[in-house]
Amino acid sequence: MKKKIGLWIDNREAIIVKLTDKGEQIIRINSGAEKQLRFEGGSRKDGLQTTETIQGRKYDTQLGKYFDDIIAHIREAEMIQIFGPGEAKDGLLKRLEKDGLRERVVAIETMDKMTDDQIAAKVREHFQQKKAYQ
Predict the structure, then answer these.
(1) For the chain, what is the largest distance between any 2 Cα atoms, rounded to a whole number of angstroms?
(2) Where would a tag sit more exposed on the chain, N or C end, judged by fewer CB atoms within 10 A?
(3) Given this model, what pLDDT does residue 134 score?
(4) Contact call for residues 60 and 31 (beta carbons, < 8 A)
């Protein structure tokens, strides 16, 4: 059996479901990334731009580490399914492309928040359908 992985991702966490001959494994990864704070009423003259810029860079760095952690868990997959609600899917996809893993992605979908059981069921269903068409 090919190693198949599906993952639900947003900017806060990723839930990875690995399907192998031995069964199913669920891994949860937290990003640790804190969204940028917006300051009301201040002008750019009083240094807020610098603070916002620093926070933006910190957030981007945290997301980069988050994507690296995810890739470390999915690198061995032959087939990858990605789904989730927001832009994190696109960020991960760009990182996978940079690492030469883009061709392993077989599906990308926009989905709302799901429970671990719903995510696992979706991954199993996706790869069972894929198997039926091969």
Answers:
(1) 62
(2) C
(3) 53
(4) no
For residue 112, which of 93, 80, 89, 79 has the smallest C-alpha distance? 89
Tell me: the pLDDT tens digits for 69-89?
A: 999 999 999 999 999 998 999
Amino acid, single-letter form, for residue 130: K
Q: How many structural domains comprise the chain?
A: 1
CA distance 100 to 76: 12
Q: What is the CATH classification number for the domain harbouring 57?
A: 3.30.420.60
What is the spatial distance between Cα 128 and Cα 122, in angstroms, rounded to a whole number?
Answer: 10
- Name the 3-class secondary structure at 21: coil
Query: Contacts from 57-64 at CB under 8 Å and sequence distance 24+?
Result: 58/34, 59/33, 59/34, 59/35, 62/31, 62/32, 62/33, 62/34, 63/11, 63/31, 63/33, 63/88, 63/91, 64/95
Residue 37 is part of which domain span?
4-133
Token representation of residue 31: 């990003």
What local confidence, expressed as pLDDT, does residue 53 receive?
Answer: 78
